[in-house]
Design brief:
The complex is a heterodimer.
Chain A (H helix, E strand, L loop, with lengths): L1 E8 L2 E7 L7 H9 L2 H10 L12 H23 L5 H4 L1 E2 L26 E9 L2 E9 L9 H19 L6 E7 L1
Parallel strand pairs in A: 2-5
Antiparallel strand pairs in A: 1-2, 3-6, 4-5, 4-6
Helix pairs in contact in A: 2-3
Chain B lengths: L6 H8 L7 H10 L1 H21 L3 H8 L3 H8 L7 H11 L10 H5 L10 H6 L11 E7 L4 E8 L12 E8 L3
Antiparallel strand pairs in B: 1-2, 2-3
Helix pairs in contact in B: 4-5
The chains are: A alpha+beta, B alpha+beta.
Chain lengths: 181, 177
């Protein structure tokens, strides 16, 4: 595991995990996925049971919604890079911790309107005030992270990064945080 | 005395020399967002049609007489498509991907094609006359059936307009889209 700098500006800094053997860091990978029609189509076809109504006709809306929200998130992070907002105002503590070690199970939560209700999340470790290390992100389809395989995987990545930072004598002030729309 | 390293110093120490490409990528995407959004929508449409008609990407490349890599670029939604490529796609899939108004009347009334215009502007572009200014006006356009539905609530000229019941009219007017 490696750490890559996204930006360091005054007292704000954002880093991302770069997994060994991968071409890009987790943050670049995440946005590549959120803006890739092929990935999104396959993702929504795989998770069509998470939607209330027959979903095939609305897959287009869902993909467009993800792209729109990804652009909004991107704008917020770029605003932080220009010191227009503080990273602390974007990232919130992750209150999903009790679920970290549970086995993935089917969620009862269903998404209604693919035009509106597709939340995106970026997961990060708060190393210090306004200093974050991004471990990944996801299209959140379930209430709890452990309820879906792909979000449960994100919890594992958060833990792995926490241990890596600890090995490098860095004790983070808040372990897990999330930012999303 | 040994200096205590700050969090930022530790992170900068262990991070790679080369910064992430994220910022550069996103700044570029933001600059080119309009055509990238359009390319993304075309890619989605192509993927849906390929799925519906059960055409593989390889077969599509053959039909278009382009390389599979070119098709891959198109469906990734990052390709600045030429008109020629769009026509090749349409011909290969037998589906119309984009169209523009070819009717003078349609071009002269662009306001009618927008849902997010002010009520006042909508009134001006209505193909019929309303004597009193409507209280509320909703425009729903169905381009497939070439039908524009105008739903509006109209008040009678009375002194106490709050006490009167609003009358609702639903009109179906044909437009040329």
């Amino acid at each position: 595991m490696k750490i890559t700098r996204i930006f360091v500006r005054n007292k704000q800094a954002l880093f991302a995990v770069h997994t060994d053997g991968e071409e890009f860091d987790e943050f670049v990978k995440l946005f590549n996925q959120w803006k890739d029609p092929v990935f999104l189509m396959n993702f929504f076809m795989k998770h069509k049971n998470n939607f209330k109504k027959p979903f095939v006709n609305k897959i287009n809306d869902a993909c467009l919604n993800v792209r729109k929200n990804a652009n909004l998130i991107s704008q917020k992070i770029r605003d932080a890079e220009r010191d227009k907002v503080f990273l602390e105002s974007l990232f919130q503590p992750l209150n999903d911790l009790e679920s970290a070690y549970k086995i993935p199970q089917r969620s009862k939560h269903k998404i209604g309107n693919p035009k509106k209700d597709i939340p995106l999340r970026i997961y990060a470790i708060k190393a210090d005030k306004n200093i974050y290390v991004i471990t990944g992100g996801a299209i959140k389809l379930t209430n709890k992270m452990y309820e879906a395989e792909h979000t449960a995987e994100e919890l594992k990545k958060l833990n792995k990064c926490k241990n890596f930072l600890k090995e490098n004598e860095l004790n983070c002030i808040e372990n897990f945080t999330e930012f999303g729309i | 005395m040994k200096k205590v390293k700050t969090t930022l110093e530790i992170l900068e120490n262990i991070s790679e020399k080369e910064p992430s490409k994220w910022l550069k990528n996103e700044n570029w995407e933001n600059k080119n967002q309009d055509w990238l959004d359009f390319s993304f929508k075309i890619a989605l449409k192509v993927l849906l049609i390929l799925g519906e008609k059960n055409i593989s990407q390889k077969k599509l490349a053959g039909l278009m007489k382009v390389s599979p890599q070119q098709v891959n670029k198109i469906i990734k939604g990052h390709e600045n498509l030429t008109i020629e490529t769009i026509f090749k796609l349409e011909k290969a899939m037998g589906v119309k991907l984009i169209s523009i108004g070819n009717n003078e009347k349609g071009l002269l009334k662009p306001a009618m094609k927008q849902n997010k215009i002010s009520k006042r502007k909508q009134c001006y572009s209505l193909p019929f006359i309303i004597n009193n200014k409507p209280k509320s006006l909703k425009l729903q356009t169905n381009y497939t059936n070439k039908i524009a539905t105008y739903k509006f609530t109209k008040y009678k000229n009375t002194k106490n307009k709050y006490s009167k019941i609003a009358r609702l009219h639903d009109l179906n007017v044909e437009i040329e889209a």
